[in-house]
């Protein structure tokens, strides 16, 4: 009957002999980079459109179309600088490539995951802005500055999107933290 220490030693040796699948890791970092570039294109388009739409909403509000347009324009104007900051972060993330060596691929994957984790602040702020906008819409209705038909459905959609965004970013943060931890573990094994 084999000794428990021999079995554990064999398992440990098998684990340490395992190699990092650098090709798969390299492809994954490249795929993430392509996805980030595509996302960046969409964010640029949305940011370019946000300012004129916000100004148009504010113009409609001042033209007497209703205070809901003023609120929507104000929320978009408040989000505009945040959208610009997110664009800068996405541009940095899009430039992060993978190295050819196992260590380079791991470091690139870790850096990408960390940068993506840092960008989640924008999803949190967007959820908070949508929640505040929904509360503002309901406040306009309660103050008799807007009809229920014009505010309640929009407020419910905004609250739903805010809640879904918050849940998504929390789940994504857990995934990215786990990925960073795995990269750190593999990097320490490569160095050790």
Automatic annotation (TrEMBL):
Keywords annotated in UniProt: Membrane, Transmembrane, Transmembrane helix
Residues spanning the membrane: 38-62, 68-94, 115-140, 146-168
Protein name as catalogued: Uncharacterized protein
